[in-house]
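Team,

Forwarding the record for the chain on the shared tracking sheet. I've put the sequence and predicted structure together so nobody has to dig through attachments.
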Amino acid sequence: MAKSPRAARLRILVLALIATVVMVAAGVIVIRATGNPFGGECVDSYSCAEFLTGGECLQQGDGSYCSRYCDVDAECPNGWTCGEAYPTVLGMETSALDSICVIAGALPAR
C-alpha cells in the first residue's frame, strides 16, 4: 500500500524535529566541553562552559571572565559576591542589568 502524502509529510516533520534536537544537544556538549570554567577568561557568554546552565561572560575592568547568575552571596564562591552587572553577549555588553557573581570589591565596568 502506498503512503499517503500526509503520512510522508508527518514523517519528514518528525525527522526534522529529531535532527534539530540532536543538533541542539551536540551544541550543548561542545559548549560544555570547550568553554572556559567559572572565573576563566571569555569573549562572550558562548565562551563559558556554563553558558546554557546559567553562566555568563562579565566584563569587569580591563578583562572579562565567566560567571553565573545568583540571588545571594552564598551562591558565589569564596572571594566573590552577588552583585548587579551587565552580561556580555556576542562580544557586546548588554543593557540588561542582572544579579551575577562578581569579584568581591570590584564594580562592573559600564
